[in-house]
Amino acid sequence: MSKLRNLWSNLETLIDPSDFETALIIFLGDYCDRGPNTREVIDFLINLPSNYPNQSHVFLSGNHDLAFAAFVGVLPPPPDGSEFSETWEEYAASEKREGWYKDDGYEKMHLQGRRWGGKIRDRFNAAKGMEYKGSIYDAGPTFESYGVPHGSADLIKAVPDEHKKFLAELVWVHEEDDVCVETEEGIKHFKLIAVHAGLEKAKGVEEQLKLLKARDTRVPKVEALSGRKNVWDIPKELTTYPTIVVSGHHGKLAIEGNRLIIDEGGGLENNPVAAVVLPSMKIVRDTDVLPK
Predict the structure, then answer these.
(1) Which SS3 state, helix, strand or coil, does residue 125 take?
(2) Would you give the DSSP letter of residue 76?
């Protein structure tokens, strides 16, 4: 939690007060899991609109947030009236290895909620070189931040209504039609698309945006929130009009042309938390030591 507060303080110090007071601030998702302070983080975010009433705040959903929302029962229902249990079949072969949640209420739970609240059989995450924290999502610390053990159905009652409302209202994509960016050739204007992981190169952009704006929960796994290599690059069709695509998710800080990936922290304790400021493209970290 101190990382988020330090980053916010550094942004407030570095940005001109009149600009900061009216800034549009886009949060890129994954407000829960791994770290011990999920409850405090969400409290901080919920209070921003009242503490900074002239700012605009956009809270994107990450894949972890979607799964948290699924577990506590606040995902929007599938638009066709289908059951969340229909999201299980495609990934059923992984149920035993991932130890999907199978306690109170699982019958009506989206796939990602079951994976999030489950107990993974293999305790060591070889990809990250560390032990899993409860589930494949490392959700154990989130349960503990609300005072319940990992995998307990009691979390549903323990999460305050205002936190459930926050999770329920997270958006899957945000667009800005005109943002300014400082370049070597001077100020240029771009369209901006913010989405937690990115957009798939192999699918039409409009098709993807339609699904994301609708928050279509018939989909078992939303690639724009959870993909990796398949969402790293900008879809070619977006190059016809200069478009910035900004994401978090990937555990890296990478700026490659108009593709911005701002996730230096990756949810890991020893990594800094970063933000990018437009139009300057300045990177600000919680670890920056600023002059008094």
Answers:
(1) strand
(2) P
Q: Tell me the pTM.
A: 0.96
Assess whether the previous peptide bond of 279 is cis (omega < 30° from 0). yes
Identified catalytic residue from 57, 64, 174, 196: 64
Partner residues linked to 124 by β-bridges:
131
The burial of 191, by beta-carbon neighbours within 10 Å (0-12 exposed, 13-18 middle, 19 or more buried), is given as middle
Q: What is the pLDDT of residues 174-194, one digit of tens each?
A: 999 999 999 989 999 999 999
CA-nearest of 151, 164, 172, 188 to 59 is: 172
| Phi, psi (deg, nearest 5) at residue 130 | -155, 165
Q: How far apart are CA 174 and CA 245, in angstroms?
A: 10
CA distance linking residue 280 with residue 277, whole number of Å? 6
Spatial CB neighbours of 62, under 8 Å, sequence gap ≥ 6: 28, 29, 30, 31, 196, 225, 248, 249
110 is known as an active-site residue: no
228 C-beta neighbours (distance < 10 Å), count: 12
Beta strands at 243-247 and 186-194: parallel, antiparallel or unpaired: parallel
Span 98-117, pLDDT tens digits: 999 999 999 999 999 999 99
Q: Is 63 exposed, middle or buried (0-12, 13-18, 19+ CB in 10 A)?
A: buried
- The angle at the Cα of 39, spanning 220 to 119, to the nearest 5 degrees, equals 45
